[in-house]
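Section 5: illustrative case.
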């Protein structure tokens, strides 16, 4: 029995995964615009880490959408692993920003939003993977 099967019984998990896949495509693009706006205040190493995390997030969203549209559940664990790797890279970037006291309050809000969306993304995709694997 999957966790979200009982929590969100009105929306199918496949639809939730599709919605998360498309909305998670927007977040890395927003992050790239954010980096372009604040690039004068951030060193190149942090910029490189942020851009790498965004490209990993974009590739994981493409993996998720391909796995759902092709009904290939073996791609979904790759999405989860890529998403968690991107989260680790993002967390390193945010910790470096916080350690040098270059963080803006909006940057902190963006980091909490990123952590929250990654948590829900992994939870929803894992529940969908469990549901498809049972069938």
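Designed sequence:
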């Amino acid at each position: 029995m999957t966790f979200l099967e009982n929590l969100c019984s009105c929306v199918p998990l496949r639809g939730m995964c599709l919605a998360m896949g498309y909305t998670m495509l927007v977040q890395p693009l927003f992050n790239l615009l954010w980096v372009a706006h604040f690039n004068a205040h951030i060193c190149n190493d942090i910029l490189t880490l942020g851009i790498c995390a965004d490209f990993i997030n974009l590739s994981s969203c493409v993996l998720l959408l391909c796995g759902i549209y092709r009904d290939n559940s073996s791609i979904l664990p790759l999405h989860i692993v890529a998403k968690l790797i991107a989260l680790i890279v993002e967390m390193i970037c945010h910790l470096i920003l916080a350690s040098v006291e270059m963080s803006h309050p909006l940057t902190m809000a963006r980091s909490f939003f990123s952590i929250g969306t990654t948590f829900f993304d992994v939870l929803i995709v894992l529940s969908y993977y469990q549901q498809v694997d049972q069938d």
